[in-house]
Amino acid sequence: MQNPFSALMQIAARPDLTFVRGEGGYLYDTNNSAWLDFIQGWAVNTLGHCPPAVSEAICAQSRQLINPGPAFYNAPAVTLANRLAELSGLDQVFFANSGAEANEGAIKLARKWGQQHRNGAWKIITFHNGFHGRTLATMSATGKPAFEPLFNPKVPGFTKVPYGDLDAVAAAIDGETVAVLLEPIQGEAGVIPAGSTFLQGLRELADEHGVLLMLDEVQTGIGRTGSLFCYQRHGIEPDVVTLGKGLGGGVPIAALLAKAHACCFEYGDQGGTFNGNPLVCAAALAVLDAVTAPGFLNGVRARSKQMISGLEAMAQRFGLGEVRGEGLLLALETGTVDAPALVKAAFAAGLLLNAPRPHTLRFMPALNVSEGEIERMLNLLGGLLERQVTIG
Ligand SMILES: *Cc1c(COP(=O)(O)O)cnc(C)c1O
After folding, report:
1. What is the pLDDT of residues 149-189, one digit of tens each?
2. Which of 132, 136, 138, 240 to mutate for ligand 1's pocket (most ligand atoms within 8 Å of CB)?
3. What is the pLDDT of residue 3?
4. Cis (ω within 30 of 0) for the bond into 70?
């Protein structure tokens, strides 16, 4: 029989099955087999699979207006931009369709700002093991070693320094530097938090040298870390923030936010056919309504505590490593246990997990994950570890 997947370009190793339905914390394939999902579309399904509020917003908007085009204002985009500005403390918003595209916009904004305000400075400091996307410029900004040999020559102008090393950043800033760009928690690198001291130090350095501080909150934004934005937990305000993943609750929308002093795009500098269309903005508004509802973020923090203490108990029981992260972006160091093998075993047991590194598991459930779902995940994982540890 012909492989039904052969018409798709093979860009990742995927299991030979097709998911056809999702509901809350669970995904179902064509045989109606269920998986408990702690990947959630790669931290995009803020409210789980097919949340009624998002489905209804999309349905209602699709009957009103799907896309008048980017040359005209539309009501959901205007409302969403105002809400994001108000909630973030930043001033203006540019909508995009992916995290990479939002970061690409941030890079362009910084270069334009450098032309206008910093004698043509254009270099951006980024960090080892950081991740900013898969367009050519964002791959160039990314500090993932596996990207280094790919698609050369890269876009020039990214100076990479060790994450957490304030002295290295200070030493790297020169007259051609226009910005510092980082994730407040490095997600793809294995959930590595920058921490308050480093973030506050960067804010001071940026002010001292007159460069922009740009935070890639594509993975950490929209409640993922227990605050609406991760920087709010660390006592700083960035000049530029990018959002993606969780913003649309599963649909493709991303955003570039900037303080007024950094907003320098002129007509023709930036745009996109689908950007800020009412359909995806309506979905994002439904997500924001839910995440900013009273008590929601308290729930995220309570589930985070539950998961951290469960994972820590497991680490102790099986002699594993540390538990890290903030909110519901957490990682467990698996010690000598092979994390990708554990992910495979979990898949066979009906649990979706991610291993961003050979000995690291990452957890990114829906932000409205239930106490029972976390308990079930911990039990399943504990059972697998028991077998792995006794076999291995
Ligand atoms: C996922 C991710 C991106 C890229 O977003 P896409 O929507 O896949 O383009 C960029 N930065 C960070 C921190 C991410 O986690």
Report:
1. 999 999 999 999 999 999 999 999 999 999 999 999 999 99
2. 132
3. 87
4. no
User: d(Cα 217, Cα 221) in Å, to the nearest integer?
Assistant: 5
Instruction: Report the separation in Å between the CA atom of 58 and the middle of ligand 1, taken as the mean of its atom positions.
Output: 23
Banded model confidence at residue 390, pLDDT cuts 50, 70, 90? low
Q: How confident is the model at residue 26 (pLDDT cuts 50, 70, 90)?
A: very high
The residue nearest atom 10 of ligand 1, judged by CA position, is 132
From the CA of 26, how far away is ligand 1's center (Å)? 23
Q: Is the CB of 132 under 6 A from ligand 1?
A: yes
Count CB-CB contacts under 10 A for residue 72: 8
Q: Is the CB of 331 under 6 A from ligand 1?
A: no
pLDDT digits (tens, 9 = 90+) for 118-134: 999 999 999 999 999 99
Length of the chain: 392
Q: Two tokens at 114?
A: 């450098």
Residue 388 predicted with pLDDT over 90: no
- pLDDT 10s digits, 180-218: 999 999 999 999 999 999 999 999 999 999 999 999 999
Q: Return the ligand 1 atom nearest residue 217 CA.
A: 13
Q: Which residues pair with 326 in a beta bridge?
A: 329
Q: Which token pair is 150?
A: 């790919």
Alpha carbon of 80 to ligand 1 centroid (Å): 20
Q: Which two tokens stand for residue 27?
A: 């995904």
Binding site membership of 98 for ligand 1 (Cβ less than 6 Å): yes
Which domains are delineated in the chain?
A: 53-291 (3.40.640.10), 295-387 (3.90.1150.10)
Ligand 1 close to Cβ of residue 131 (< 6 A):
yes
pLDDT-based confidence at residue 7 (cuts at 50, 70, 90): very high
Q: Could you give the CA distance from residue 287 to residue 289 in angstroms, rounded to a whole number? A: 5
**Residue with CA closest to ligand 1 atom 6:** 99
Structure confidence at residue 1 (pLDDT): 60
Query: Is any atom of ligand 1 closer than 6 Å to the C-beta of 218?
Result: yes
Edge-to-edge strand list for the sheet holding 34-37: 19-23, 26-29, 34-37, 351-352
What CA–CA distance (Å, rounded) separates 169 from 130? 14
